[in-house]
């Protein structure tokens, strides 16, 4: 009875996963116990999951941060294992109550043997081939004991059978009593173990093949990664070389530009220094003569003194006849220096700092009809077209000369050009009309919204010849094909008025009094710039940057600045330029193909370089 109890205890001390005596046993929430190392392996099989599924009952246990070590330990089981390890194993073959200590264990008999029994065992002919293990090796863990399971119902019987339907071992008596009548599939335990081991070996072989398959895949990934690393290194080296070469070129350009600025301004400095020197000499001359003449305590009486006094007075009179300082000459000289400006290459493809330019007004042209300007747009041949709400399109050269006027009978709201140079005209009634280069009206109709439906409107044309009409009050933009007809699409302007619109690559620029918006072709605002109290107008420059003109409310000063396509400031081009005061805050901005900037008020065209 005692031996059967020991066998039950021994079986209870085995981990269901590794089938060895528990090592650092941990308890799951379902109360089943496993070795910590076995649980680590099970958790690893689930990837990054923090949920551990019990192999016996399939219940789930949360493992925070995947730290199995923090699961509760089975202290009672650990203590029992230590006690069993520290106890001597007695001979199970001797019949006496005072049994001697065992020295070996026979795997085939399933019995512990003392020295006497071992000697007899080794001499029995049928037992010579049995596998015998030394107790010292068993205790040290070098070898594992293959124990025969004892039936719990019949402790003296070994579980020599296995029921495939119940998935459990059983003794012969249990098979006859419980499994045979049920028609269960019962085989010898040894056969099951053999088949099971064969199945395990087969699984292990398949796992090895699968592991080899994935290892080849890992090796392949490493090979591809090495190729990528080599490409990265090569590209990085090329970038460093290109950067160093660009730095060298930019450094050289910087030195040249600084030298050019110095050359342009040094002459002005010398001119001003000469003017200053001459003025200081005049001051010194006047001071000396005046002191000599006026600082006398008595009137000269003899002839020599009188002659000297007369001469000095005459010199003072001559000095007083000198003209007053010429401020215009100084301003003229300084203007040459102050007009020197640096124009950066922001937005350009080539690597270059920029150029030194003269930012000065070239010309001011009074428009033929007062308060008439409604739109300003560059022509395909590089000139500037002014649309007039009183009627007509006026064409100006880059030096501000009026060269041509046509369509005088059409009251114009907006002007645009298609890629074949046809004119696109939006009149004050919001009708779109196409004209040839010879100003012949084409028979193409567009179904725009009338002025009664939406008062104000503006027009622009993009690089794909699509025509955009913005309706301010109803806050939307219609898109038309040059073939005419209904709008092919509409762009909602939620939360803002589109105002004056200008094409900007894949976006549109919306000018709404105090705010500039860069919107995409779906009406979504990507970037915006606000200057409350200032009237703003923006266009795309010849360098694909953005030019913005600013006029302060109730003032006659205009500033023109350059910005990136994200509306970040680059540089000042025109600072506080005084224009003719006008009661209507309506102005337009464009750039000539040759680089001049055109700023137009209702009755004047200002051209800057």
UniProtKB/TrEMBL annotation:
Q: Which domain of life is it from?
A: Eukaryota
| Record has Transport as a keyword | no
Quote the InterPro entries the UniProt record gives.
Answer: 6-blade_b-propeller_TolB-like, TRIM45/56/19-like, Znf-RING_euk, Znf_B-box, Znf_RING, Znf_RING/FYVE/PHD, Znf_RING_CS
Q: Which UniProt keywords apply?
A: Metal-binding, Phosphoprotein, Zinc, Zinc-finger
**Sorted alphabetically, which SUPFAM superfamilies does this protein's record hold?**
3-carboxy-cis,cis-mucoante lactonizing enzyme (SSF75011), B-box zinc-binding domain (SSF57845), RING/U-box (SSF57850)
- Gene Ontology terms: cellular component: nucleoplasm
Query: What GO MF terms are annotated?
Result: ubiquitin protein ligase activity; zinc ion binding
Domain RING-type: start-end pairs? 15-58
Query: What sequence ranges are listed for the domain B box-type?
Result: 86-135, 146-189
Question: Which stretches are annotated as coiled coil?
Answer: none
Pfam families, per the entry:
zf-RING_UBOX
The protein's name in its UniProt record: Uncharacterized protein
């Amino acid at each position: 009875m005692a031996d059967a109890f020991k066998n039950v205890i021994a079986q209870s001390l085995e981990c269901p996963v590794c089938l060895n005596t528990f090592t650092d046993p941990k308890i799951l929430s379902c109360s089943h116990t496993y070795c910590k190392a076995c649980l680590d392996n099970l958790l690893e099989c689930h990837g990054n999951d923090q949920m551990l599924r019990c192999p016996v009952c399939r219940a789930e246990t949360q493992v925070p941060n995947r730290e199995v070590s923090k699961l509760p330990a089975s202290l009672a089981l650990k203590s029992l294992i230590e006690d069993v390890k520290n106890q001597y194993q007695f001979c199970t073959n001797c019949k006496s109550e005072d049994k001697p200590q065992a020295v070996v264990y026979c795997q085939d008999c399933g019995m512990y043997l003392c020295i006497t029994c071992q000697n007899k065992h080794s001499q029995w002919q049928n037992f010579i081939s049995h596998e015998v293990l030394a107790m010292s090796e068993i205790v040290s863990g070098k070898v594992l004991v293959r124990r025969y399971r004892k039936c719990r119902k019949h402790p003296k019987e070994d579980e020599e059978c296995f029921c495939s339907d119940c998935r459990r071992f059983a003794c012969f008596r249990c098979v006859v009593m419980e499994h045979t009548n049920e028609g269960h599939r019962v085989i010898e335990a040894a056969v099951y173990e053999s088949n099971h081991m064969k199945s395990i070996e087969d699984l292990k072989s398949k796992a090895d093949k699968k592991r080899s398959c994935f290892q080849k895949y890992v090796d392949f990934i490493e090979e591809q990664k090495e190729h990528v690393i080599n490409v990265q290194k090569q590209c990085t080296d090329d970038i460093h070389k290109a950067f160093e070469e660009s730095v060298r070129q930019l450094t050289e350009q910087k030195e040249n530009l600084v030298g050019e600025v110095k050359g342009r301004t040094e002459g002005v400095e010398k001119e001003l220094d000469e003017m200053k020197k001459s003025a200081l000499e005049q001051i010194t001359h006047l001071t000396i003569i005046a002191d000599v003449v006026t600082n006398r305590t008595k009137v000269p009486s003899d002839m020599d003194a009188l002659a000297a006094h007369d001469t000095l007075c005459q010199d003072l009179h001559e000095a007083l006849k000198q003209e007053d300082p010429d401020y215009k000459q100084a301003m003229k000289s300084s203007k040459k220096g102050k007009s020197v400006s640096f124009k950066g290459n922001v937005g350009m493809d080539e690597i270059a700092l920029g150029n030194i330019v003269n930012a000065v007004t070239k010309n001011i042209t009074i428009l033929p009809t007062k308060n008439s300007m409604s739109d300003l747009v560059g022509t395909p041949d590089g000139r500037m077209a002014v649309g007039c709400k009183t009627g007509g399109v006026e064409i100006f050269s880059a030096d501000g000369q009026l060269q041509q006027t046509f369509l005088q009978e059409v009251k114009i709201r907006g002007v645009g050009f298609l890629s074949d140079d046809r004119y696109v005209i939006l009149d004050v009634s919001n009708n779109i009309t196409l004209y040839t280069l010879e100003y012949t009206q084409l028979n193409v109709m567009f179904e725009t919204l009338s002025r009664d439906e939406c008062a104000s409107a503006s027009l622009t044309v993009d690089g794909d010849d699509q025509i955009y009409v913005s309706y301010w009050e109803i806050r939307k933009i219609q898109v038309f094909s040059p073939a005419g007809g209904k709008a092919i699409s509409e762009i909602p302007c939620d939360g803002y008025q589109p105002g004056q619109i200008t094409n900007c690559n894949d976006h549109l620029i919306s000018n709404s009094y105090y705010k500039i918006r860069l919107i995409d072709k779906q009406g979504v605002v990507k970037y915006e710039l606000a200057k409350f109290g200032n009237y703003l107008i923006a266009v795309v420059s010849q360098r694909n940057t953005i030019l913005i003109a600013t006029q302060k409310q109730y003032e006659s000063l205009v500033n023109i600045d350059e910005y990136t396509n994200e509306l970040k400031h680059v540089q000042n081009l025109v600072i506080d330029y005084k224009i003719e005061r006008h009661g209507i805050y309506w102005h337009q901005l464009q750039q000539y193909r040759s680089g001049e900037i055109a700023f137009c008020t209702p009755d004047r065209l200002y051209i800057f370089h």
